[in-house]
Task: inverse folding
DNA sequence: GATGAATGAGTCTTCATTCAT
DNA sequence: GATGAATGAAGACTCATTCAT
């Protein structure tokens, strides 16, 4: 009985440990995000991240192989979260969008909310010179967004060539990307007039090419 | 007599020196630009820049107070060059734009040409994040571009409030900034379809808000 | 009554524990030996040893005070094993050697066999330098081997001074130590011609000084 | 004239600089040797070496690419010095040795002197587990010594097979290697009785196989 | 003005060891 | 007794900057 008991204890202990480990990892990741946001990837030191997370440098390296691994993990988190948010708000990929304007509005809202929620996203991945591993880490995200836009545009412009659709897709993505960083710094991003203006700009462009 | 003579010599020598100094400075700046472009601001070491510029590290610090100062000086150079280019192509600031669309087209062309000519511009200042040391260097550039757009928009929309004009200005700037980096990587940027699409997008937006 | 019972239980349990403890310790020591052999003393990490031994780092420190203590314990093990092997093959210490040549041959065979059986022995203790932490661990081994040789030499050269005997002892030990590492890397060490040559060399030296 | 003068100054300055650089490098190397001797290669820290050499860590890395490079450079020094010493004392390779015993005596003296002069040699390179680059660095030395011994033995034993000569060569080398470390720690190595004993041992072995 | 050797604070990372559970 | 997460003191190495010449 005592052995059974100790096994139960062991299980509970290891469950607790695992839970705390996951929490710890998440805390470090959140701390890292804010440090990256403040001082950039190269400006951030692992010792500072550790200290701010209330953890020893050694502990940090129990959760992340390297400084870069922290950024990659962050990217993975973003990919997962954004995919989730996009599906929830705009509908699963494949669902026809009856109205292009609706699609634009909802997508922008999703992006705005996302950027507000994860300030590190802009700070780390919207750079011209991210080191290759970071770039790779967000590639899926790029692809997902592009695919979604491409699909909707193609459905609404059946007469256009692949190349044209691809071009429009890229334009929409980059136009939004240009405005997003400044929206993200607003007080209340979702209600910001800039958010409205971005929607207007995209709608105008889509009407023009339609 | 000899003192007069030596003074004349001194003047001539100091003029020569100054000229060579200015040339040196420009060379270092050009070298720094290409190094920044290759490896980014933090990836660049002052020793590498000095070496590639054929100058000793000590000399580099005779022209620039710090690594950051190099970037700031580069930004100032860009401001000057871009102002010149803009004036030449679009008309001096203050000159009324008869047609907004004309203004857009010419401005975009200027920017595209400029980005092609100065690769460091994109590498350093078109980043969505800007590591803190670069943030202040970028400000004058921002202001110059904004001022130009603001002026033209204000002239064409006399009934709008300051705040609205400011908002539209920011939008135009950011929309262009989003697309510019991908235009810059094209084979022949000026003829790229994306350049045309950017003009279309901006015209459509301006028409919408007009 | 119950207390008696529990005491009996306790005794049996503690006996079991102790037995398992000894086994554990031996397992860790064996693992450490192979890790040391693979990557050297400084290359080995206590965490790796623990992991390979299927033990937690904390447990390892229940058996060994420090990393150095592992090496010392290994040395002690070698002293014990080598003493045993030596006694079995050459006769217990104290037993007169009728023939010096016999003694040489048997001792070399013992050493060769031992080196083949315990690769860690060479890796840790046959190094010409010994990093300071290992220096003290090696001492007992040195002493044991020296004592054995000294005794036999003294018995066969009653007319020589202490100092001379000590010198000859050291010579024999070091001559053998020089050749042993290369013998140990041979396919079949015991049959290697080098083993024969080492015996010849030592016999020749002993004859010379005899 | 003043320009000529400044050129002369420049030349003198750069000559001075180079001279000081070479001296500095040699000092660091000497310091490193003694640190390696005291605490071993892995025990030595680059910061300690720098400090003891009266140099900043950064300066150390101006002369040596890495900690390992220091050891490799030391090895190269040893190779050069020992080659020089050997040629001077025993005669250039190729010169027939009339007497084997003479050859042994002189070679041992050279080695003893060398080991006394460069204590780092034993500490760094007589180890069972030197990292590969260190091993490579002394390989030439090994080869030189082997070649020299091989040549002399072959000349004196024309009837033996290649394999036998090779074996004897290896034996001589290793027998000497075993005793050398303890000779090197003696007060006055050249006069140490152990040096005499080593010569005796080698002569006895060579007589035996002759 | 120019040089480049010298600096040293600071970076990422490791690992022997401890300790709460 | 066992566990393994946590620790934190170093270590090798870099690089913006200075300064004697």
Result:
């Amino acid at each position: 009985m005592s052995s059974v008991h100790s096994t139960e204890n062991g299980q509970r202990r290891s469950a607790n440990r695992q839970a705390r480990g996951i929490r710890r990892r998440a805390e470090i990741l959140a701390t890292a995000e804010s440090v990256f946001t403040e001082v950039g990837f190269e400006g951030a030191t692992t010792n500072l991240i550790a200290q701010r997370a209330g953890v020893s440098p050694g502990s940090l390296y129990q959760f992340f192989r390297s400084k870069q691994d922290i950024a990659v993990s962050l990217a993975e988190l973003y990919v997962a979260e954004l995919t989730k948010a996009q599906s929830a708000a705009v509908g699963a990929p494949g669902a026809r969008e009856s109205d292009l304007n609706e699609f634009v509005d909802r997508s922008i809202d999703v992006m705005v909310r996302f950027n507000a929620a994860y300030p590190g996203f802009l700070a780390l991945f919207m750079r011209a010179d991210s080191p290759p591993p970071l770039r790779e880490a967000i590639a899926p995200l790029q692809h997902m967004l592009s695919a979604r836009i491409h699909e909707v545009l193609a459905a609404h412009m059946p007469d256009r060539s692949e190349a044209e659709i691809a071009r429009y897709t890229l334009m929409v993505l980059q136009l939004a990307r240009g405005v997003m960083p400044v929206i993200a710094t607003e007080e209340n991003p979702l209600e910001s007039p800039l958010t409205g203006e971005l929607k207007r700009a995209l709608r105008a462009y889509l009407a023009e090419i339609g």
